[in-house]
Design brief:
Shape: globular
Mean pLDDT: 75
Strand content: 5-15%
Largest sheet: 3 strands, antiparallel
Length: 126
């Protein structure tokens, strides 16, 4: 699996509501994710598969409030929450980079920051 494919998988999990954790997988070095209540590496299962990327499962439907706001507001709320989570995750990764002494781990963290920034840019384009 290429780094670009791994980045795409991580971006998809972030967009679907997964949370990138401050912990790294001991096997592949990519950040672990919390998704649907489970902590998991989203890269290792793909590295051993046939190379096809699985679709992340969509999050559970969100119950609409009694009085629904304007359609534009409803459409932007999930993206806003995802963007906020991405920003917090990127900041946390940057803090980890400052204290990381292993070059390989530092590079992995920097790649995750770059991918997170790309995901943020995609959200801003929508």
């Amino acid at each position: 699996m290429t780094a670009d494919q791994a980045d795409e998988v991580m971006a998809e999990y972030l967009l679907k509501g997964g949370k990138m954790l401050a912990k790294s997988c001991k096997v592949c070095g990519y950040p672990l994710f919390e998704y649907k209540g489970a902590t998991q590496c989203v890269i290792c299962p793909l590295a051993t598969s046939s190379g096809t990327l699985p679709e992340p499962e969509p999050p559970a439907p969100v119950r609409q409030p009694e009085q629904s706001p304007a359609p534009a507001t409803v459409a932007r709320e999930p993206q806003g929450r995802v963007a906020e989570e991405l920003e917090r995750t990127i900041i946390h990764l940057c803090e980890r980079i400052r204290s990381e002494q292993r070059a390989g781990e530092c590079l992995t963290l920097m790649m995750a920051v770059e991918r997170g920034a790309r995901a943020l840019a995609r959200l801003d384009q929508r």
